[in-house]
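anyone seen this seq b4? input:
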Amino acid sequence: MQQKRLSIVFAGAGTGGHLFPAIAIADEIRKTKPDTEITFIGTRHKMEARIVPEHGFKFETIWVSGFRRKLTIENILFPVKFIVALVQSFVLMKKIRPHVVVGTGGYVCGPPVFVASLLGIPTLIQEQNSYPGVTTRLLASHVNEVHLSFKNSQRYLKRSDNVRISGNPTRESVGRVSREDGALHFSIDPGKRTLLVFGGSLGASSINNAVLKILPQLISTGIQVVWQTGSMGYPRIEVEANKVSVASDGLVKVYTFIDKMEFAYAACDLTVCRAGATTISELTKAGVASILIPYPQAAADHQTENARAMVETGAAVMIRDVELDDRLLATVETLMSDSVVLETMRTNALSMGNPDATVVLARAVVDLANTEHGRPRKNI
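predicted toks r here
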């Protein structure tokens, strides 16, 4: 009997943290089952509208936005948008007729996953953060499978029988670069202690400012610094950091954006960074000791939850944003001077990692699409 050609829908974007795990899973499915029809559902004006077509996937849009924590025009329109998004999602389900719908978090995935569950289409949610987002918490009881990145996330969900711990998909190359190749990529000495600093594509001004203040002390102890400043902080920091770098024979390497983070992870002994879900997944896959500074404005303070999971395992130290000036220098110097502690943190980070997360999740999606696991599929 000829095997059916699968049709799979991915919904969930608005940010890279929700979009790139979906793309990683879709890429893996396309690699193993190239005839699969894969469609992404997103919004017209967010990053997915550009990035999804660049990866060669079909893209459909719905009219939806998140609920903000203050009075805005968007909040007034929220009920209208949500109803419209439900209708649009129903029309798309009828048009695409997917065998499974996958949500990767955020407000975008709410309407498509909810409509699919009502229609009896098998559904799966992949949650990146230690503290599940509101959409995941609302939908978790209605979907066939919920795949978490952190085991402790289960306590926030009402159901447990449909929960799996699968990890968060990351770039395949992370964790596969040697220290020597990483150092060569940045033209630094692989034999010297190296600190990696980054805060996202736009940067993190509080981290940048704190590191800039302690840069002379770090350099004086022979620590090399590989620093992604982000586009907003780069011009000022490049000038100031280069003054220190010239005086220290090039121990500081400053970049607006590092597009090959796998080399950066391989080259460093310790990193100072935010605690976003994708960052945590890459740190654990590469096995990197870290000082995590959660973004204080993150929704439901989920980055603090992410960081706390790392701290409890002994893979990281957490410093709150307001404590940076008081604690950062002493923490970096203490960790960098103790090889045993750094190696223990690295080992603990690796123990948290799920290097096969992408493959596991892709297989789960395909298996769900190939079975009658969910409620009987209605004639749509």
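Residues 42 and 234 are 31 Å apart (CA to CA). The two ends are 24 Å apart (CA to CA). kinda curious what u guys think
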